[in-house]
Known about the structure:
Blueprint: H1 5-17, H2 23-39, E1 50-55, E2 61-66, E3 71-74, E4 88-96, H3 136-149, E5 162-165, H4 175-186, E6 188-190, H5 226-231, H6 239-243, E7 247-249, E8 256-258, H7 262-265, H8 275-282, E9 285-287, H9 296-305, H10 308-313, E10 319-321, H11 333-341, H12 358-361, E11 366-371, E12 374-378, H13 394-406, E13 410-412, E14 418-420, E15 427-431, H14 455-463, E16 468-473, E17 480-484, E18 492-496, E19 506-514, E20 519-528, H15 542-553, H16 561-565, E21 573-578, H17 619-631, E22 641-644
Parallel strand pairs: 3-21, 4-5, 5-8, 12-15, 15-16, 16-18
Antiparallel strand pairs: 1-2, 4-19, 6-7, 9-10, 11-12, 11-22, 13-14, 17-18, 19-20, 20-21
Helix pairs in contact: 3-4, 3-15
Amino acid sequence: xxxxxxxxxxxxxxxAAAGLANPDLLRxxxxxxxxxxxxxxxxxxxxxxSTLVPVGAGYRRFTEAPGWPTLVRTLGPEARAGxxxxxxxxxxxxxxxxxxxxxxxxxxxxxxxDRYSDPPSPDRFKAAFRPQETLTAQVAEAMVRRVNSLSGGxxxxxxxxxxxxTGDNGDNRQENELxxxxxxxxxxxxxAGSGGPNYEGVQDQEPTTYDxxxxxxxxxxxxxxxxxxxxxxxxxxxxxxxxAQPFTxxxxxxxxxxxxxxxxxxxxxxAPANPAFxxxxxxxxxxxxxPPGMSPVTLMNGLQTGNPAVLAAxxxxxxxxxxxxxxxxxxxxxxxxxxHLASPPSPGPVGHGLPATAATSGVLYxxxxxxxxxxxxxxxxxDRGGVEQGSLDAAQFAWxxxxxxxxxxxxxxxxxxxxxTSSADRLIVVFSHHNLDTMNNETPDPTTPGRRxxxxxxxxxxxxxxxxxAWVNGHSHRNQVLPxxxxxxxxxxxxxxxxxxxxxxxxxxVEIVDNRDGTLSVFGTLVDHLAPAAAAPxxxxxxxxxxxxxxxSANDHQRxxxxxxxxxxDRNVELxxxxxxxxxxxxxxxxxxxxxxxDGGATLPATGAEASLPLAxxxxxxxxxxxxxxxxxxxxxxxxxxxDGR
Length: 646
C-alpha cells in the first residue's frame, strides 16, 4: 500500500526536521520498507516498525519516525527471489554491548580530563565524562524490558536462543559495577549508588568543588554550567537522587553470555592494576583536577603505566573528601569470573558461559551452543598490560584454531591446502569485545609471555575456515557492518553494534537462516530500549530517566552522532553468504507464511546521513505489524547452552 501525497509529505517533514531527508531516496525507501514489513514475521517493537530521531536546532529532542527497511548485502552469492518463503530459521540472538554500568561517584574516575577533548582539542580524553552517565542502570533495565517484550526474532519469529553481552559491561573494573550489571540481566534488587546516602560526584551542588564544565541537573540556573549556557541543556531537579533509587530489575528471560571488555579488565578502560590506584578507588579522597604543573597527557600516561611519580603527584592535586566504599575495589579476572559463577541458575547458564575453572585460572574465553546448527566462540581480547585497544595472546590464538577445527569437516591450512577432518560441521559465530580495526594492541601482557596476536593474523585464521560466517563485537560505540571476503572460504561478516551508554543506545537482534538454495542469510535488526521517545520535563520515573539519557547522549558535543548511528547499510541488514556445507533438511516448515516480495530483495544506495531513514508505507501495514506483535505470546524458550571452557 502506498502513502497518500499528504502522508508522504508529513513523513518527509519529520525526516527533514532531523536533517536526514533526501527526496530522491524517499520513494525507493518507501518500497523497501514495504517489502520488509510484508516479509518479516514480527517487526513490532523494533526499528523495522518505527525509529526515534533527534530533531531541532541546538539542543535536540526525540520524536518517532518511520522504520528502517532491511537492506540486502551480499558476500559472493546472489540473493535469489522467493527465499523469504523458503527460510528455515537456525538461530536467534540478542546482541548487547558496551552497557557501561558506571559508578559515577567513584574516586577512581578522571572526569576532569574530559574538557581537554572539547573541540578543537584532540579526542584522547573523550568520554571521561558524559552528562547521561548517572543513568546507565535505568538504560540497561529499559533495554531488558524491550527484549522481554519481543516474542522472538523479527524476521523469522524464532524465539531468542540467547543474549550475548560483548564486553564493557561495567566501566571501571569495580566490584559494585559488575554486581549491578549481573543483577540487571539476572533480575533482582538494584541500587546503583555508592559511598554515602547522598550523591557525591562531579554533578552535585557542592559549593567548594562546583565546576561549570559539568552538567548539573539540580541547578535551576539557565547559565549555571556550560552545558546549559552554551548547549541549551535543561535543568532536571531531583535527577541525581532518583538515579540512585533502588528498583527491582526485570532480568532477561533468555540465557545470557558474558564477554570481557577493556573497561571490565582495566581501570578507566586503559590502566592495568596497581595497589595505589585501587587505594584511590576505595578511599575517601576524589581528585578533581590535574596536579599542579602536570599536563593531562602526562597524567593519563602515568595512570596507564602505573608510574609511581605520577601516582604520588596525585596527593598534591585538587581534591574533595567523599565517603569511602570497599565495594569499589578492582576485580582480578578470577574474581570477575567468580561473580558470574555465583549468579543464580535462572536465566542461566551458570557462569554465563564461563567454566568453573575460570575462577582460578583467569582464562575468560570459551565456546557455547547457540543452537543445534550454530556454535559460538567467545574471545577475551583484553590486554592486561593496558591501553584500550585489543589483541590475543599466543595461547588463546592456538586455542581458537583448535576450536575452529573441532566444528569444521574441511578447512585450509596455513599453506592454503584443503584439509578434511572427521569433525561434525557447525556454523561458527565469533564473539568478542574488540573489532578487527581495534585489534592492534602490542603492549606486553605481564600475565602471558610472547608477542600479542593482532587483527590481520586473526582475520587470516578465520578466513581458513568456511564455517565461520560472522564475527559479532562492539567497542567502537557505533553501528557498522563490514564484509570480509575470501576467495577460498567465501569470507565472513563483521557486525558491530552501538553502545547502550552513548547515542543511539541500541541493541541488535541477529538471526541466522538457511535459504534452502545454497545460501545463508544473517539478519541484523536494531532495537531501541523501551523508554518513550521523550520524557516529561522533570519526570523521574525509571523509563523517564532512560528516555532522558538517550536525549542527553544525542546532545553530547564530543560525539560524532552520524558515525555512531551508521549508514543504512550498517543498521537493518540481510547479509548473504554461501552455505559452507549441506545443512540437514528441516522437519518443520518456515516459522510463518509470508507474502511474496516479488524480487530478490530491496537494495538502496547509502550516501551518508540523507540515506539513513526510509519513508513509511502506510498506516494499514503498520497497524498490521502492531497487531501481529499483540497477538504473539512470549518466547517459548531458549535452546542454547554451554559447551566447554577450553
